[in-house]
């Protein structure tokens, strides 16, 4: 009985190691970018947004997306979050665009507004877009992040001061 258990453990270990060795080490992390952002009609009190996302797959194998979670931060405050499931497969060396819905965190929105009012002299907002893609399979969670700045004049519709 003890010898059979040892053989089973050794065989399982060997199988696991061979599976890890067969995994590609040259996998390149796909990129995600925010292409559009709009308010969608909503029945509740909290606004909803439609985010247009573009995912680029730089790998020689297609990327079947089972789901994703995403968040948008402004000045360190996580304002917009959402999840999506049953997404399309991103082709090898290809890209896909899709639209997902997200909700607004009212408390963090009020905190951001308070911070902006306290520092009214700022000329830009820092943002961060994070997405976590589930491509299925063993350890295929892919986390992506994009950061940048938005001029405040672009939000108000006024030209930027020179």
Structure in words:
The chain starts with a helix and ends in a 6-residue tail after the last helix. The longest helix has 21 residues, at 2-22. The protein has helices spanning 2-22, 106-118, 152-156, and strands spanning 31-40, 48-57, 63-64, 67-74, 77-85, 89-90, 94-104, 124-134, 141-151. It is built from three helices and nine strands; from the N terminus they run αβββββββαββα. The model is unreliable at 17-22 (pLDDT under 50). The chain has a single domain, classed as Immunoglobulins (Immunoglobulin-like). The strands form two sheets. Strands 1-2-7-5-4-8-9 form a seven-stranded antiparallel sheet.
Topology of helices and strands:
Blueprint: H1 2-22, E1 31-40, E2 48-57, E3 63-64, E4 67-74, E5 77-85, E6 89-90, E7 94-104, H2 106-118, E8 124-134, E9 141-151, H3 152-156
């Amino acid at each position: 009985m003890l010898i059979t258990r040892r053989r089973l453990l050794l065989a399982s270990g060997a199988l696991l190691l061979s599976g890890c060795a067969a995994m590609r080490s040259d996998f390149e992390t796909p990129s995600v970018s925010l292409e559009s952002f709009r308010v969608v009609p909503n029945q509740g009190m909290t606004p909803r947004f439609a985010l247009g996302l573009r995912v680029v797959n730089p790998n020689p194998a297609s990327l079947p997306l089972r789901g994703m979670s995403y968040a948008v931060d402004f000045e360190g405050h996580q304002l917009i979050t959402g999840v999506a499931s049953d997404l399309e497969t991103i082709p090898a060396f290809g890209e896909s665009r899709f639209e997902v819905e997200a909700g607004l965190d009212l408390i963090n929105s009020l905190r951001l507004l308070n911070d902006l009012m306290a520092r009214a002299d700022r000329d830009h907002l820092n943002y961060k877009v994070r997405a976590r893609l589930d491509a299925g399979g063993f350890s295929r969670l892919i986390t992506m992040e994009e950061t940048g700045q938005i001029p405040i004049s672009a939000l108000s519709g006024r030209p930027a001061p020179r």
